[in-house]
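User: What would this chain look like folded?
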Amino acid sequence: MHRVPARPEHAGPGGRVDVEEAIDGRRQQDVDAVVNVAESDVQLVLPAEPESIPLARQMVRGILDHLGWGEESRTDISIAVTEACTNSVLHAYPEADGEYEVHAWAAPGRLVVAVRDRGRGITPSVMSPAAGLGLGLPLILAIGDEVAFTHDDGVTEVRMTFSPESRRDDG
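Assistant: Here's the prediction, encoded as structure tokens.
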């Protein structure tokens, strides 16, 4: 495993962070990432700020590119991961700063992505202007092959499992 710090503002063109460059220590950062390139196992610890979400999305897209999954799968999975990260950023820490983790790993024929935070957890709430349209969780459920929501020992986790065929049109 390599420890890779990566700040969103240090991303290159298109918001991409060059993991190889970060591993070589040529970037200054205060966000940690752990990368096991051989096993496509990556973990980011990010500030719960909207600017961090593209970094998490790019990390997952990079793994999917490495796995050779099709564009439709990459797009759908990116949407699900973006929604899970957005939930942590918008709802986990309403009154304070915090951070969230995105951990992704490949298993035979599938990708598992877990988004975790130590915020207030997933609770039903009354719609407010800050709550958005409430489409994130239904999108995650529609895209993932398996989706689990847990809140144990102060850690909220959304664990999503995807396969390259999960959104294939059978028609």
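Residues 1-30 have pLDDT under 50 and may be disordered. If you want, I can go into more detail on any region.
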